[in-house]
Amino acid sequence: MNELTFTISNLTCEACVKVTTMTLRKLAGVTDVSVDLSSGKTHIVSKEPINPDDVTNMLQAKGYTVAF
């Protein structure tokens, strides 16, 4: 299993959590995504290696800022 933890800035509501979760689930091999609305702390579990650049690009395209 591969895991990646990071923070997403500018999450303002549950819809933001849903959008980011759905977006991250599109990464190859992802089996679990958890996003905490209040802190922005995000954790991904995947069967395949997770490229942080892919995560950043996907979420920036949706208007979010990512910090590792």
Could you characterize what this model shows?
By secondary structure, the protein is α+β, with helices and mostly antiparallel strands. It has one domain (2-67): Alpha-Beta Plaits (2-Layer Sandwich), CATH 3.30.70. It is built from two helices and four strands, in the order E-H-E-E-H-E. It has helices at residues 14-24, 52-61; strands at 2-9, 30-35, 41-46, 65-67. The chain has a four-stranded antiparallel beta sheet, covered by helices on one side. The longest helix has 11 residues, at 14-24. It starts with a strand and ends with a strand. 15% of the residues are buried. The mean pLDDT is 97.
Can you lay out the helices and strands and say which pair or pack?
Layout: E1 2-9, H1 14-24, E2 30-35, E3 41-46, H2 52-61, E4 65-67
Antiparallel strand pairs: 1-3, 1-4, 2-3
Kindly summarize this structure in a few lines.
The chain is of the alpha+beta class and 68 residues long. The protein has helices at 14-24, 52-61, and strands at 2-9, 30-35, 41-46, 65-67.
